[in-house]
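Lecture 7, part 2: worked example. A protein chain together with tetrahydrodeoxyuridine.
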Amino acid sequence: MREEIHTLKVEVFDSLDELPEDERGLIEQAMRAKGFAYAPYSNFKVGAAVLAGGIFRGSNQETAVYNGSHAERTALDGAAVADRKNRISKIAIVGDSDVPITPCGPCRQDIKEVEDLAGSPIVILMAGSKGAVWRVLGIDGLLPLAFGPANLK
Ligand code: THU
Ligand code: ZN
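Predicted complex, written out as structure tokens:
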């Protein structure tokens, strides 16, 4: 037996000003997208923005049968339908909270899929409506030992 330890490095930025310009811009686009969320049931609005050549925005869109879409997926799918699915390099996620929000399990799986298509680690930026921004390079730390496209080969 041997042990493996899998770690997650999170870069914590105390303010948006500390981020590189493109990443600050991506977070600002995610904040703007949050304004278009439709969340009358949870009252929890989420915005996302994906960098894939251009910027693709998304927000959570709920339904009365509680099967709505998550902000991350609507943004990722926006890039996909513009034929940029394999060119996604960064995603920003912003929630209605004082602390950064992190993508849920199924959204992590979506990010895993596009990261494998891109062939290099995706920058994942997580923020609340104020306060710190968390930055993680690659989905691996957020979805360790993931099942991905390679498992089906
Ligand atoms: N939500 C997202 O949009 N992304 C996530 O990964 C976490 C949750 C949304 C879904 C629902 O509309 C609301 O936040 C509360 O769960
Ligand atoms: Zn989700």
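The longest helix spans residues 21-34. The chain has three helices and six strands. Keep this in mind for problem set question 3.
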